[in-house]
């Protein structure tokens, strides 16, 4: 496993290590998705307050409770990050140890996308694609394993489905 993951990471990160513009783009996309999701969520909350105030609780409580549960679970799992477990240098700087699985960034992006999907299919799809981009950048960046972002994405989808069921 050790050599396999290191080889895998070397392959996916090599284009970014050898081209400073690509590395800047990777880091920029990572930050862009994080910030755009925060702004989208705030904008969505403001829009819901204005247009659908009776369901504001859904759009706040469901993602919020999911975030808390996910945070507790990942703290209990306390999985090491790729740069802790293997001799790799991440492309996205992170000084945190543990708490790698599931990815909270990807969970948050996905559950925000599901909030968007609740109100608009087209916006929801665009936001889900951004959540996938976040997952990809976190793996290429070396701060999460593929399983971490996959589980974070699935947890975000499941949590977001409660918007439609409640």
From TrEMBL:
Chain ranges of the Phosphatidic acid phosphatase type 2/haloperoxidase domain: 55-164
CDD domains associated with the record: PAP2_like (cd01610)
Transmembrane helix listed as a keyword: yes
TM segment ranges: 29-49, 55-73, 106-137, 149-165
Superkingdom of the organism of origin: Bacteria
Family matches, as SMART domains: acidPPc
InterPro entries reported in the protein's UniProt record: PAP2/HPO, PAP2/HPO_sf
UniProt signal peptide: none
Pfam families hit by this protein: PAP2
Gene3D superfamilies found in the cross-reference section: Phosphatidic acid phosphatase type 2/haloperoxidase
Sorted UniProt keywords: Membrane, Transmembrane, Transmembrane helix
PANTHER family in alphabetical order: AT30094P (PTHR14969:SF13), SPHINGOSINE-1-PHOSPHATE PHOSPHOHYDROLASE (PTHR14969)
Protein name: Phosphatase PAP2 family protein
